[in-house]
């Protein structure tokens, strides 16, 4: 008589079938997780890592449906065609330490001058914060900030694009889980006008701003009064007269601006730009006051000043 410990023929067969099925499942599972490919290229590998990051992002459920072109430690270019906001291509830099779940990193939004307008976002790397993170990847700026540098076409002005830039800023903040209390705004020339306009349209988004050789509508000063501002302008600027920033600074002081700093630079450098030959000022004397706001020791002070400000988000 067969003892109770022995398996029946039918039991043995069914155990055998289960074992084989589990084996097959284990073999198939690994490649399936890698998008069904047995051998994945480094590019695909990166894509998978980004998808994994997106899944681990606690902020929003629809995150998994979003593209995340940003890569920690790199400045990536997103063309207008690929962009989430129709009008704007952009560069996005994320510090090496960035992950979607680490302590949120501050975001610096930079609006370029007319010369960098176009359809190749990598042209925006020529100057300002995107140049700094590109050229000094180990530097303090590259380690402290995520940098969003949108690019407009030559046929538009930054001060007409406030909503587009704001939408892109919100998109990047959310997608990369950046620090909403430390979003900073800066821009040069046409981008300086853009910073004044965007700051006035959405003062609640930014913790501080640095508008350079631009200007704006003094009537918006009341809206700007709670936004700390450090303006720069060359006294000898032949492209945008210094009075343009003077007016904004005056208006903000009158409106009771919470913090209004102004570097009115007596002998600001120019910048060679053949595009300005027609206007008779190919070297744009006095226009490049941003050199004293973004680079070297003076720049260091500006970045530190920005980081010293944090927006208080009221919990209504
Ligand atoms: C900004 O985003 C809002 C909400 O998604 C949308 O309704 C609006 O059309 C966008 N504005 C621009 C100018 O892109």
Automatic annotation (TrEMBL):
Transmembrane segments annotated in the record for this chain: 12-28
Keyword tags: Membrane, Signal, Transmembrane, Transmembrane helix
UniProt KW Membrane keyword: yes
Single GO MF descriptor: hydrolase activity
Source organism superkingdom: Eukaryota
Dienelactone hydrolase domain segment(s): 170-256
Pfam assignment, any one: DLH
Cited PANTHER family: BLL1128 PROTEIN (PTHR43037:SF1), UNNAMED PRODUCT-RELATED (PTHR43037)
Protein's name in the database: Dienelactone hydrolase domain-containing protein
Native species: Cymbomonas tetramitiformis
């Amino acid at each position: 008589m067969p003892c109770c410990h022995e398996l029946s023929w039918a039991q043995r067969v069914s155990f055998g079938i289960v074992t084989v099925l589990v084996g097959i499942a284990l073999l198939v599972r690994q490649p399936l997780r890698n998008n069904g490919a047995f051998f994945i290229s480094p590019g695909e590998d990166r894509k998978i890592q980004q998808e994994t990051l997106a899944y681990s992002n606690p902020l929003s459920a629809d995150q998994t449906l979003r593209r995340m072109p940003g890569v920690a430690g790199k400045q990536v270019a997103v063309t207008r065609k690929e962009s989430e906001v129709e009008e704007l291509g952009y560069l996005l830099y994320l510090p090496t330490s960035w992950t979607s779940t680490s302590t949120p990193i501050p975001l610096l939004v930079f609006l370029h001058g007319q010369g960098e307008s176009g359809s190749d976002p990598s042209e925006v790397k020529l100057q300002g914060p995107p140049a700094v993170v590109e050229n000094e990847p180990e530097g303090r700026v590259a380690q402290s900030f995520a940098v969003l540098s949108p690019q407009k076409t030559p046929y538009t002005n930054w001060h007409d694009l406030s909503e587009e830039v704001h939408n892109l800023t919100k998109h990047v903040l959310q997608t990369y889980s950046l620090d909403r209390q430390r979003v900073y705004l800066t821009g040069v020339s046409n981008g300086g006008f853009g910073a004044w306009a965007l700051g006035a349209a959405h003062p609640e988004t930014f913790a501080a701003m640095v508008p350079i050789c631009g200007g704006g509508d003094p009537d918006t000063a009341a809206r700007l009064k709670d936004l700390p501002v450090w303006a720069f302008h060359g006294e000898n600027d032949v492209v945008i007269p210094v009075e343009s920033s003077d007016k904004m600074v005056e208006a903000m002081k009158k409106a009771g601006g919470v913090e209004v700093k102004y570097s009115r630079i007596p002998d600001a450098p120019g910048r060679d730009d053949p595009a300005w030959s027609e206007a008779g000022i190919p070297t744009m004397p006095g226009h490049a006051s941003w050199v004293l706001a973004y680079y070297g020791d003076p720049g260091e002070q500006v970045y530190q000043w920005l980081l010293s400000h944090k927006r208080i988000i009221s919990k209504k």
